[in-house]
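ESCALATION

Customer reports they have been waiting on this structure for their group meeting. Please prioritize. Original submission:
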Amino acid sequence: MILASWRSIMWIVRRADIVLEVLDARDPMATRSRRLERIVQSLGRKLIIVINKADLVPRSVAEKWKRIFEDMGYRAVYMAARDHKGTRVLRRAIKEVADSFPAIVAVTGFPKTGKSTIINALKGRHSASTSPIPGSPGYTTHAQLYKIAENLYMIDTPGIIPVEGGDLEAVIRGKPPEQLPDPVKPAMKLLEKALRYNPRAVKDAYGIDETDPYRILELIALKRGWRYKTTGEPLVEEAARAVIRDYHEGKLVFYVPPEEYLSRRARRQGVFV
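Update from on-call: job pushed to the front of the queue and completed.
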């Protein structure tokens, strides 16, 4: 795998004709990278917004997010890659935005958005590597071109966008909890957000009827037998890491409604009218 860096993102985008930016349907704006979008535009490549994990939100929500991005001028599709739902729609969109053939597709996005699953869905069962990608000796042993349709090829390496932002943003954008110096604070913020958008999120995920984030972590640790050996106190750090993993695995269920983004945008526009 190519390590997450903007240098590797530039390398991938330069070798593609069409770039897929994979977002999480539960929070598309938080998993969107405007820096990536500017790079794609500056290099004259075509961009398709892929709203993945649409199985974790109502279909009407995915439809609204799709229309929001289309109103911004982007081609957008939504799909549930792990269930292979929406793959044909994505293939059709790729073919329609291509200026000429043969064309090369690259898949980019933050960690945990499902880039590798989309790559595998596009490759299908019978896809085979055609050749290493020329142009950079340091990467040719990692990146291959796969034929995914007639005159259509894909770079078989996801472009992993470096995770940036504050504690909560880093967690939502897929930073591994093991890499967090203190997972408790972002996990508490994540629980607060979950309860704001789905008051039953904690009850459904853990069987815990509590709203205080720190207490929730304590109760999760106690239920699972995670205690400090010396004091017997609940090991909240381990519970915090579990909560972060549960969000990415779809166990802690909530989503940001598109209406919230639309109302914020309307207020911003009103300020500058």
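Sent to customer with the following note: The first helix runs from residue 6 to 14.
Escalation resolved.
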